[in-house]
């Protein structure tokens, strides 16, 4: 409720009802922004609302993400949905402590290819054109909306987010194609109290992406070194050793 942002030219999200707000209007987050490790915004940041233009985002567990990235991060997708590891966690600064913000994530394909893993060379090879793009979805942090002060008080963790390869998923999980590469994106949206707030939708958000969080979606780990690192660094690693039924 209270979100009256609209889709528009350059919006990364389709006008689909599954992420429409209570008003039935989908949410606009605008064109993708280039990001750095500290989540710097790309060109055009100067046109942003003062409530978001100073927002900065730092990726938590950056060294662990980089360790996975050097090996080629893989994330499991299942029919039932699987949590990400490492978990996407960020530390926010520069928000207006008294303003309301919604935090959310989406995942965009890195290219138009599908891949296969060559075990003899321990490398990913292009296997053809990408499958049709899975239904575009966003994951709202469950504490949204909340005051800037609350978001800045502690590390924000997207530990409820799950990835699925079920195109008919009705649990709100992020739908991805297996053997395709993705870039997670993080968005901070100022909840504009003005009655005509949709006119300013393009000014009221800031997007961040961290290249070290890119990953290949898989139904089973392909690189055994990824499996080893997940088990070594994940306190809940027993879940990675147990095979989940795909039914």
Automatic annotation (TrEMBL):
Region Disordered: start-end pairs: 24-47
T-box domain mapped to chain residues: 59-242
PROSITE patterns: TBOX_1, TBOX_2, TBOX_3
Key words, A-Z: DNA-binding, Nucleus, Transcription, Transcription regulation
GO MF annotation terms: DNA-binding transcription factor activity, RNA polymerase II-specific; RNA polymerase II cis-regulatory region sequence-specific DNA binding
Keyword Membrane: no
Cytoplasm among keywords: no
Bias (Gly residues): 32-45
UniProt main location, coarse: nucleus
Range of residues in the leader sequence: none
GO cellular component terms listed in the entry, alphabetical order: chromatin; nucleus
Domain of life, source organism: Eukaryota
GO biological process, alphabetically ordered: anatomical structure morphogenesis; cell fate specification; positive regulation of DNA-templated transcription
Location within or outside the cell: Nucleus
Name the record gives this protein: TBX10 factor
Species, as recorded: Casuarius casuarius
Recorded name of the encoding gene: Tbx10
């Amino acid at each position: 409720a209270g979100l009256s942002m609209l889709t528009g030219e350059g919006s990364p999200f389709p006008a689909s009802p599954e992420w429409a707000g209570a008003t039935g209007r989908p949410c606009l987050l605008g064109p993708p922004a280039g990001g750095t490790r500290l989540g710097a915004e790309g060109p055009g940041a100067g046109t942003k609302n003062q409530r978001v233009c100073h927002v900065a985002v730092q990726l938590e567990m950056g060294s662990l993400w980089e360790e996975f990235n050097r090996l080629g991060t893989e994330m499991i997708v299942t029919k039932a949905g699987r949590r990400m590891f490492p978990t996407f966690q960020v530390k926010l600064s520069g928000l207006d402590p008294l303003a309301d913000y919604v935090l959310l994530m989406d995942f965009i394909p890195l290219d138009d290819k599908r891949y296969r893993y060559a075990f003899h060379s321990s490398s990913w090879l292009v296997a053809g054109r990408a499958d049709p793009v899975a239904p575009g979805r966003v994951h709202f942090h469950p504490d949204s909306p909340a005051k800037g002060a609350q978001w800045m008080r502690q590390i924000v963790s997207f530990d409820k987010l799950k990835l699925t390869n079920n195109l008919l998923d009705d649990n709100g999980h992020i739908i991805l194609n297996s053997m395709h590469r993705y870039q997670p994106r993080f968005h901070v949206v100022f909840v504009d109290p003005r009655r005509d707030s949709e006119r300013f939708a393009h000014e009221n958000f800031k997007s961040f992406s961290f290249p070290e969080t890119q990953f290949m979606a898989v139904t089973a780990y392909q690189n055994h070194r990824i499996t080893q690192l997940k088990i070594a660094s994940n306190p809940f690693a027993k879940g990675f050793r147990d095979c989940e039924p795909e039914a």
